[in-house]
Amino acid sequence: AQIVIHSKTRAILGAQVAGHEASTLIAPMALAIQNELTLDCVLDTIHAHPTMAESWLEAALIANDTPLHFPPKLKRA
After folding, report:
1. Is 76 helix (H, G, I), strand (E, B) or coil?
2. Tally of CB atoms within 10 A around 40
3. Residue 32 contacts by C-beta under 8 Å, 6 or more apart in sequence?
4. Residue 47: what pLDDT?
5. Where are the beta strands (DSSP E) in the chain?
6. How far apart are CA 27 and CA 34, in angstroms?
7. How many CB atoms lie within 10 A of CB 35?
8. What domains sit in the chain, N to C, each tagged with a CATH number?
9. 43-52 own/partner pairs: CB under 8 Å, 24+ apart
10. DSSP three-state, residue 73
11. Radius of gyration over every alpha carbon of the chain, rounded to an integer in angstroms
């Protein structure tokens, strides 16, 4: 899963997911985009664990540069 956000407003501009049940998993992000939610709204949402839908939390954490299961991006000088 991947979330595309506006760098200043943190508005969710787009999202993508691939694989089994992708058509079901994209629904929460479509709802977020339609309702003009921000990345912070996704980060503040309680996600069920363990579920495939929890991948949106990880995608939001990556977009926030605070990933839980992936190393953070390297800062370039």
Report:
1. coil
2. 12
3. 12, 15, 41, 42
4. 85
5. 2-5, 12-16
6. 11
7. 9
8. 2-63 (3.30.390.30)
9. 52/21, 52/25
10. coil
11. 12
**pLDDT for the residue 4:** 96
How many whole angstroms separate alpha carbon 68 and alpha carbon 62?
8
Active-site annotation holder among 20, 47, 49, 69: 49
Amino acid at 32: A
The pTM of this model reads 0.76
Query: Which residues, 6+ apart, have CB-to-CB distance to 27 below 8 Å?
Result: none
pLDDT in tens, the chain (77 residues): 999 999 999 999 999 999 988 999 999 999 999 999 999 999 999 888 888 888 999 999 999 988 888 877 777 76
Return the structure tokens found at 21: 């049940």
**Chain-centre distance for alpha carbon 22:** 14
> Catalytic site residue 69?
no
pLDDT at site 27: 93
